[in-house]
TrEMBL record:
<keyword id="KW-0813">Transport</keyword>
<keyword id="KW-0067">ATP-binding</keyword>
<dbReference type="Pfam" id="PF00005">
    <property type="entry name" value="ABC_tran"/>
</dbReference>
<feature type="domain" description="ABC transporter">
    <location>
        <begin position="5"/>
        <end position="238"/>
    </location>
</feature>
<dbReference type="InterPro" id="IPR017871">
    <property type="entry name" value="ABC_transporter-like_CS"/>
</dbReference>
<dbReference type="InterPro" id="IPR003593">
    <property type="entry name" value="AAA+_ATPase"/>
</dbReference>
<dbReference type="InterPro" id="IPR050153">
    <property type="entry name" value="Metal_Ion_Import_ABC"/>
</dbReference>
<dbReference type="InterPro" id="IPR027417">
    <property type="entry name" value="P-loop_NTPase"/>
</dbReference>
<protein>
    <submittedName>
        <fullName>Zinc/manganese transport system ATP-binding protein</fullName>
    </submittedName>
</protein>
<dbReference type="InterPro" id="IPR003439">
    <property type="entry name" value="ABC_transporter-like_ATP-bd"/>
</dbReference>
<keyword id="KW-0547">Nucleotide-binding</keyword>
<dbReference type="GO" id="GO:0005524">
    <property type="term" value="F:ATP binding"/>
</dbReference>
<comment type="similarity">
    <text>Belongs to the ABC transporter superfamily.</text>
</comment>
<dbReference type="GO" id="GO:0016887">
    <property type="term" value="F:ATP hydrolysis activity"/>
</dbReference>
Amino acid sequence: MRPALRLAGASLAYGNRTLWSGLDLEIAPGEFVAVLGANGAGKSSLLKVVLGQQRLAAGTVEVAGRPVRRGDRRIGYVPQQKGLEPTTPLRARDFVRLGLDGHRWGPLLPSRRARAQVDRVLDAVGALDYADAPVGRLSGGEQQRLRVAQSIVGDPALLLADEPLLSLDLHHASAVSALVDECRTRTGAAVLFVTHDVNPVLPYADRVLYLANGRFRVGPPEQVMTSATLSDLYGSPVEVLRSNGRLLVAGGAAPSEHPHAHEHEEAS
Ligand SMILES: Nc1ncnc2c1ncn2[C@@H]1O[C@H](COP(=O)(O)OP(=O)(O)OP(=O)(O)O)[C@@H](O)[C@H]1O
């Protein structure tokens, strides 16, 4: 089967600083890959490469067998969270609808089918109660649920989610993770899901891509999320603790020039 996403010998650099290199990754349709790593490891940049917004320094990247290009309608994207302007002149449901026909100019076309699709995802993220509210007045967590709804409403073949659980309470973090899982099961979408906390996606992640120190490990969570693997990756002691089925990563202070890398922790 043709991979939904294929990176081969991929390297990413800004100027003379290489974020990661030698990345070979094939994601099958329907596969769920969680992307983890310290601040600044290059997780968001990886998504930008797949979106065609950032060029590789070396190697190739293909989405469903074709070179990446900007504005690929087969890709759904949840950008890293930014608050929407309070005066944004859109209702929540119109904001979600942009995921279906936001690429077209002009007023939204009346369509019973589009309305039903929007209602279905609003319901799935628990946003029906505020479907007609102005989007800019909603809380960070409410807006975040709408971003997720917008990214999946068009049934993408590849879903890229950049910290979609940020601002969500435990209940909604679980619900959004389950929703993404349900979406990939129903539509066969492949998922690349950036998160700082692996726990909400542990039930669904087929593999983890862990980026640190310009290197990476990729494999099933039980292989990657171990003290031995992460200590080796970071080059310093990292302890992965297990408690009640949850993982807690302690340590991971990367010998990096970026002080915020030391804040890395998957505890929640
Ligand atoms: N366009 C750019 N030009 C130069 N440097 C950049 C650019 N975009 C990102 N960087 C730098 O590259 C590094 C990786 O950024 P990126 O946002 O991909 O990291 P991340 O792993 O997603 O981090 P976080 O967990 O903090 O969101 C950072 O140090 C960032 O400052």
